[in-house]
């Protein structure tokens, strides 16, 4: 290990000379005759791989030097061997408590010094290699997790687009409602009713789940799903089944998974219950109040807002301000009151999201042509 740098520290010039001559034939050597000088030399780049530190020095003794080395992030991992004429057990205990890796007693014997130095340099190199391997492994784990999350996100959107292809809504509806859910979730994260459950991780899972809210529409017949006018009572009953069919499809995916997938639980709640109303007059189960899953209540608000402000082949969009006022009147009826209040607080953010993912007239016309051709 000829490239290894050894820092020797001793206030006695004769000891420095002896150690320097002994070690220079094997290693690069830096020498310091005081504590402050030792700290400066230890901080130089490249940093030493090992320090031989005298305990008894005037001013700043070896114990204080070691304390300061360990307190500095750039030098805390450099192994330190004390060189001392002290032989009291309590002195050794103090040194080891502070972080010294070994003691060499004076008078120094060359064979002992070289053996101890070589041993601790090898240990230091082994620790460094292990640290590098751990760092590389952690980076690989992060990379693979990122790939898995990307694949998961793409798969979710691909599934959601299966329903969207046959739906009068455009693809940007998925992006807008996903961002609305994320925005509203963060806005409610400090509310006393929701703070315990809406941490940042949960909010991201909810947003990840949101695009699957209408996945059940793949099971609705074209003559109902694509009907440009008002549905008959019989047709409306069939249309409502998309909520239950979506939840059942996700439940099948859950059962087939090798282990639980967090976001699927939220996706199932959203698909099943995002058409429930706070007052109990929604579908498919007529749930009311807090009996409606939190995820579904968030999705209900996001979905209604987007439906109101979006152009459809059968209607013009409402201005966002008019949509806001219409929804405000549904506080405590269609919507959870606290969620509606949060929506009003972040209304400008909702508008910014809508503008970011706005549907162009061309996209609406293309959707209309696609659906007309399919009929």
UniProtKB/TrEMBL annotation:
Family annotation (SMART domains): HDc, REC
Domain of life: Bacteria
HD-GYP domain mapped to chain residues: 148-359
The Response regulatory domain, residue ranges: 5-121
Gene3D superfamilies (UniProt xref): 3.40.50.2300, Hypothetical protein af1432
Residue positions where 4-aspartylphosphate is found in the record: 54
Keyword Hydrolase: yes
Tagged with keyword Phosphoprotein: yes
Pfam hit, one: Response_reg
Any one of the GO BP annotations: phosphorelay signal transduction system
Record key words, sorted: Coiled coil, Hydrolase, Phosphoprotein
UniProt GO molecular function: phosphoric diester hydrolase activity
Coiled coil: 120-147
Transmembrane segments: none
PANTHER family per record: CYCLIC DI-GMP PHOSPHODIESTERASE TM_0186-RELATED (PTHR45228), CYCLIC DI-GMP PHOSPHODIESTERASE VC_1348-RELATED (PTHR45228:SF5)
Record protein name field: Response regulator receiver modulated metal dependent phosphohydrolase
